[in-house]
Every structure is written in C-alpha cells, then in structure tokens.
Design goal:
It holds the Pfam family LRR_1. InterPro entries: Leu-rich_rpt, LRR_dom_sf, LRR_extensin-like_regulator. This is Leucine-rich repeat extensin-like protein 6. Residues 1-23 form the signal peptide. The two termini are 28 Å apart. A hairpin with a 2-residue loop joins strand 2 and strand 3 (90-100). The protein is an alpha/beta fold. The protein is elongated. It is built from four helices and 22 strands. Residues 1-18 and 28-42 have low confidence and may be disordered. The strands form three sheets. Strands 2-3-5-7-9-11-13-14-16-18-20-22 form a twelve-stranded mixed beta sheet, sandwiched between helices. A six-stranded mixed beta sheet has the order 1-4-6-8-10-12. Strands 15-17-19-21 form a four-stranded parallel beta sheet. The structure holds 2-acetamido-2-deoxy-beta-D-glucopyranose (NAG) (7 copies).
Length: 374
C-alpha cells in the first residue's frame, strides 16, 4: 500500500505545533463566536486542566521516556507535551490548546476527567500503549479539531463519541483494535480525513453513506466484506484518495467509482473483486495511482484508462485479464510504471497457466447477480 501522510499529522516541531495550535484555535474561536462570553480567569481554565492532567497521570502505568515526570504542580503549560495558547477573546488568558504525546510509548487509560479540557484543539497520541475505550466525556471537547489516536491499543466498537465533536476535521483511529461496524454517520460529518485502517472493523462499508466532505479515506486492512456500495459516489466533491486494500471486498467494482472525479489515488488491491474494470475509471482525469492487483478481475484492460494524462503507476498484476488494449501493453513507452504479471495475457511473460485462465474464462461474471451480503 502506498503511504500517504496528511501534512498536519507529521509529528511537527514544537514551533509548528504551537503556531498551528493557535491558528486552529483562533479559527475555531471565530467559528464558535456564538458561545457565551469567556469571563473565566486564567486560573479557572488552567485549574480544570490541572485536575484533568493529574487524573490522567494517575492512570498512566508505564512511561519509559519520563514524558509525564514533570506533570507536577499547577503550571500545566510547562508540562511536557502540553501546549497552551492565549484564548482568542482574551489574550491574557492562557488555555490548554494542544496535547502532543506522539511516540511516547506510554501505557494507560484515558480517564473521564479529560472532558474538563474544554479548550483543546489538538489531541495527538500516536504510537503509545493507551488501551480501553474512549470516555464519553470527550463529547465536551467542542473545539477539538484533530484527534489522532493511531497506533494504540484501543478496543471496543467504533467510538461514537467522536461523532458528537462539532469541530472535528481530522480523525485518525488507525492501528488499534476497534471492531464491529462503522456507523454511517461517520461519513456525513464534516471531516477532511478519515483513517480507520488496520483495525478489526467488519460488517461491510455502510451502504447509506451520506454526502461526505472527506478528501482522504483509508479503509485498508479491515474485514469489511461485502461490496463497495455505489453510494461511494457521495464522496465525489472532495475525495482524492480512496484506499481499500485488503478489506475482503467482493463483487464487482461499481461504475460509480468513476464519479469520484477528484480522485488521485485508487487502491483496491488484495480483495476478491471480480468482473471487468468499470470503464468509467477512464474519466478520472486526475488519477495518478491505480492499483487493482491481487483480485479476480477479468476481461480487457481498456486503453481509455491507460491514456489518462496523470497516471504514473498502474498495477494490475495477479488478476485474470486476457487483453491489454493499445498502449496498455507497454505503458513504459509513455512513462507510466505498470505491472501486468500473473494475468492471462497470451503475449506476455510471467502469466498464469492456461488451466487457471480457462477455469475463470468458463465462468463469466454477472455483476448484477452478486447480492453483496445485504
Ligand atoms: C468572543 O468575543 C465575541 C465578541 O467580543 C463574542 O461575541 C463571543 O461570544 C466570544 N467568543 C467566545 C468563544 O467567548
Ligand atoms: C526515567 O526516569 C528514571 C528514574 O528517574 C530513570 O531511571 C530513567 O533512566 C529515565 N528514563 C529516561 C529515558 O530518561
Ligand atoms: C515555566 O516555564 C517558564 C519558561 O521556561 C519559566 O519561566 C517558568 O518559571 C516556569 N514556571 C514554573 C512554575 O515552573
Ligand atoms: C464538561 O465541561 C464542563 C465545563 O467545563 C464541566 O463543568 C463538566 O464537568 C465537563 N464534563 C465532564 C464529563 O468532564
Ligand atoms: C489483511 O487484513 C486482515 C484483517 O482483516 C489482517 O489480519 C491481515 O494482517 C491483513 N493483511 C495484510 C497483508 O496486511
Ligand atoms: C507503484 O504502485 C505499486 C502498487 O501500489 C507500489 O507497490 C509501487 O511501490 C509503486 N511504485 C512507485 C515507484 O511508486
Ligand atoms: C516498451 O516501449 C519501450 C520504449 O518505447 C521499449 O524500449 C520496450 O522494449 C517496450 N517493451 C515491450 C515489452 O514491448
């Protein structure tokens, strides 16, 4: 799978985080200008943060890098990993706007008291050993804009509390042990990036996907099963990267993927997808990477896709294609990387055996006959 990191999450230098935090903070304050005027003093905001952080420290059972060793006393803005910024309406008032404990290797829980961090805009806990479930009190974090819980040991069903966060834009839950279905509401929230890959999600990608505003959606390495719902077209106005690698998808790829006109990356490799490549993909003028490898696609590789102007890497190895139209048979000549090994291409080396190919050719795929497990 190609790895696409979202610029904001790359563990930023402290300076970057701080400037980002205060700008996010300011934008959000502008968005939330309908809320009641802040009369609280510095003490009250930071005092609540102090209660929250002490409660958190109390349920941290391993901190090999001593990140929380200086979480002592009321000056929470001096704690490692805690970033304060002036509260927009009153620049004399400091508030805890960001927490960055990325790569701290801390083991522990998230306590209910985190709901006292009302001013938090960024919470980055990537690569720790936090476990258990997310406290419902997180619904109190009405300014939270980025939530990165990736690479921890969170368990249980999809943490619905994130659906109640009005300012959330970036949600990263990848590399945890969440299980069960994804709620359809996840895809009607105003999120820019959704990472749910490498969990234990099951029960199919919701077919009643609402209109989403996400530009990046990574479903990879889960056990969804079923078909890719045609409602994927509801992402059309924003989606640029769709990664469905190894999600146990079956059936045919719906022609609606061709409606995702902003798509730059489409990776459906390592599934059980069958039938033809939808010709609508030839309309994806911005497509740069197309990976269809390790499926059961058959039929022809249409020239309309091979001539896409931005296409730089087209992998369709390990399928049952029997013909490459026109330039598709030598994409190197137009500077596109391609891989056509292990298909049924009579003129090409490193193909499947005649026996394997015949077995598939004898059972033509009827895309309408799939019931997709619904
Ligand atoms: C900020 O100040 C504006 C105008 O002074 C006020 O209307 C608004 O409620 C305040 N916002 C917050 C979050 O306190
Ligand atoms: C953390 O603190 C303990 C006790 O003071 C010390 O033994 C250990 O070396 C420290 N670890 C790091 C990574 O600084
Ligand atoms: C917090 O850090 C600042 C800057 O390093 C320092 O001036 C201040 O004394 C510290 N406050 C406390 C209470 O440690
Ligand atoms: C939510 O925030 C309010 C206001 O700061 C606070 O009084 C309340 O205790 C918080 N709730 C939880 C569950 O932390
Ligand atoms: C594919 O996804 C499953 C979960 O559905 C996971 O157990 C497996 O490790 C993944 N395979 C690879 C190569 O990542
Ligand atoms: C081309 O795409 C394949 C499959 O996504 C990937 O494994 C390979 O690294 C890519 N090649 C380059 C040079 O990006
Ligand atoms: C593909 O085209 C390139 C450049 O036009 C040529 O050098 C190469 O031999 C061709 N490869 C095949 C497999 O036809």
């Amino acid at each position: 799978m190609a790895s696409f990191s979202f610029p904001i999450t790359t563990t930023a230098s402290v300076l970057l985080l701080l400037s980002l935090t205060s700008s996010v903070f300011n934008n959000l304050a502008a968005k939330h200008s309908h809320s009641s005027p802040i009369k609280a003093t510095t003490n009250q905001r930071l005092k609540k943060a102090y209660i929250a952080l002490q409660a958190w420290k109390h349920v941290i059972y391993s901190d090999p890098n001593n990140m929380t060793a200086n979480w002592v006393g009321p000056s929470v803005c001096n704690y490692t990993g805690i970033y304060c910024a002036p509260f927009p309406n009153d620049t004399n008032v400091q508030a805890v706007a960001g927490i960055d404990l990325n790569h701290a290797d801390i083991a522990g829980f998230l306590p209910d008291e985190l709901g006292l961090l009302n001013d938090l805009a960024l919470l980055h806990l990537n690569s720790n050993r936090f476990c258990g479930i997310l406290p419902l009190s997180l619904s109190n974090l009405t300014l939270l804009y980025e939530l990165d819980l990736s690479n921890n040991r969170f368990v249980g069903p999809f943490p619905s509390v994130v659906l109640s966060l009005p300012s959330l834009s970036y949600l990263d839950l990848r590399f945890n042990e969440f299980e069960g279905p994804l709620p359809p509401q996840l895809f009607s929230k105003d999120l820019d990036a959704i990472f749910v890959n490498n969990n234990r999600f099951t029960s199919m990608i919701p077919s009643n996907l609402g209109s989403s505003s996400a530009s990046v959606v990574v479903f990879a390495n889960n056990y969804f099963g079923g078909c890719l719902p045609p409602s994927i077209a509801n992402f059309a106005n924003t989606l640029e990267e769709l990664l469905l690698v190894n999600t146990s998808l079956s059936g045919c790829l719906p022609p609606e993927v061709g409606f995702l006109y902003k798509l730059k990356v489409l990776d459906v490799s390592s599934n059980k997808l069958a039938g033809p490549i939808p010709y609508s993909i030839a309309g994806l003028a911005h497509l740069e990477l197309l990976n269809l490898a390790h499926n059961m696609f058959s039929g022809i590789v249409p020239e309309g896709i091979c001539v896409l102007p931005k296409l730089s890497n087209f992998t369709f190895s390990y399928n049952y294609f029997c013909e490459e139209q026109g330039i598709c048979s030598n994409l190197t000549s137009k500077g596109t990387l391609y891989d056509d090994r292990r298909n049924c291409l009579p003129e090409k080396p490193l193909q499947r055996s005649k026996k394997e190919c015949d077995a598939v050719a004898e059972h033509p795929i009827d895309c309408l006959a799939f019931h997709c497990g619904t």
